Amino acid sequence: MVYVTKHSGEREEFDPQKVEYALLRSGADKTLAQYITEEVKRRLYDGIKTGEIYAIAFELLSKSDTHTAARFGLKQAIMRLGPSGYTFEKFMSRVLAEYGYKTKINQTIPGRCALHEVDIVAENGKMKYMIECKYHNTQGMDTGLKEALYSFARFEDLRDAGNDFTAPWIICNTKVTTEAVKYAECKGMRVTSWGYPPQGSLQELIDGKSLYPLTMLATLTEDEKNKLANSGEVLLQDLISMDARKLAEITGVPEGKLKPLEEEIRGIATNLPKGL
Amino acid sequence: MVYVTKHSGEREEFDPQKVEYALLRSGADKTLAQYITEEVKRRLYDGIKTGEIYAIAFELLSKSDTHTAARFGLKQAIMRLGPSGYTFEKFMSRVLAEYGYKTKINQTIPGRCALHEVDIVAENGKMKYMIECKYHNTQGMDTGLKEALYSFARFEDLRDAGNDFTAPWIICNTKVTTEAVKYAECKGMRVTSWGYPPQGSLQELIDGKSLYPLTMLATLTEDEKNKLANSGEVLLQDLISMDARKLAEITGVPEGKLKPLEEEIRGIATNLPKGL
Fold first, then answer.
1. In chain A, at which end, N or C, are there fewer CB atoms within 10 A of the end residue's CB?
2. Are residues A75 and A2 in the same domain?
3. Which of A70-79, A145-154, B55-64, B80-89 has the lowest mean pLDDT?
4. Which residues does residue A131 pair with via DSSP β-bridges, in sequence order?
């Protein structure tokens, strides 16, 4: 029995089904998904990190299907955004900023009847959105009607207190149920998720401006990623342009030992095609 | 290491802290809670059911503090309402019926923007409530603002489609956060939970008419309770008045073997004081 170390530090029995399923969901065909899963099993060792497993799968996938590889790598990388420093809210706030929004995260705002935690406030000239981020660190956890309902009730309560939000917006890293989408559309609420809407889904927003999260890198430890996040670097492209000295300074990795990281960054930058 | 068998059938390591904590939360003082926990530990055996553990604690508590015992027994019994046949919705529907409401459970009703599952519809001459039941089978899981928000949004969407509900009502078996109560009161939403409101809390509704759930009985198996629930018997008082032959018929327990059950029913009926 081989145990893997999860993102959170917990240990869990290795389950090849999970790897195969993740590959299939990214669009790999059955034969390829099975082949890669077998390869992953061959390279396992006790205590391996889930991040490493996905890096192996990503590498193998890149060799035969670059489009699927990009989708797979990105989806897994978003799943690995932490509950700690390097959060989905922080990442999405940066992505929205690249699309011209002025953003603020984790705002506490009084409504008429309750005090609300708003994940992101995003405004451009026309719109001021109250954004609810739903982040799940496992596959298959869909965002449903309840989340859509409470986001709308929150928006209403904030508006009733005189806040000038123009619409609520749910952004999530997994799928959204049909019922939730139906309700949101009917209520004029915006929803962005993995695969939805057909134009402007989460992966399109990210890919459209190559805003890949740092968690795509398997060579960085949890701690190193958090250090980077805390100093404001949340994207892969931030690192591409960063000089080795600064990278060493922030992460605490000696300059002489940065080679694997630099190689990985270059590798991913080459592997990620536009328009995934 | 002693393992206990949970309500769900899962096995879990015995944790004396949980017993002590449950006793303290029901109002037992520290010395008594510790003494009872020690006694429980002495009587443990591998594979013991959580229901039996609480029955032992209940019995010991009854001998020295009947009020706390009643509160403790009731709270645990509600926690043991199943995810299967014998549900919290079914129990609460019966309790409300005893208070003069006409009730229906698990209704699917179209709103303006979505199709909603309503746990209980309860109406008397004046009010027609849309009731959302929040049931937790562990201590310390409070119902919070999100639940209050989505219940209200659901109510609004149903009303927008022309449904004649007069107010939403959240009923839950654990505590409700202050923020959720504040929002609910502000929105005209009724909330009934363990300990809230001071007049007419869940325990008062139940105790006011001695509407104790069958799950207070440790001598019944899961299967026997479900059989009773499916034949419409959800309260202890239903059994007190039932003749042995019918009880045997429904539960499948031979008439000759009903003695422990009958003794337990009598015991609890004697132990539960009014006005807990």
1. N
2. yes
3. B80-89
4. A120, A169
Place of tokens 């990985």: A264
User: Which phi and psi angles does A85 have, rounded to 5°?
Assistant: -55, -40
Residue in B113, B114, B153 nearest the CB of A153: B153
Q: How much is the average pLDDT of A13-25?
A: 88
Contact A149 B145 (CB under 8 A): no
Among candidate residues B61, B60, B59, B40, the one with its CA nearest the CA of residue B49:
B40
Domain range for A31: 1-80
Q: How many domains does chain A have?
A: 3
> At B21, which amino acid appears?
Y
Q: Of A51, A80, A109, which marks where a domain is finished?
A: A80
Q: Which residues contact A52 (CB under 8 A, 6 or more apart)?
A: A218
Taking 50 as the threshold, does the pLDDT of residue A275 lie above it?
A: no
Residue B241's Cβ-count burial label (10 Å; 0-12, 13-18, 19+) is: exposed
Residue A168 pLDDT greater than 60, yes or no: yes
Which pLDDT belongs to residue A103? 97
Asked if B168 contacts B133 with a C-beta cutoff of 8 angstroms, the reply is: no
Mean pLDDT of chain A: 86
Nearest CA in chain A to B155: A149
- A112 vs B contacts (CB less than 8 Å): 186
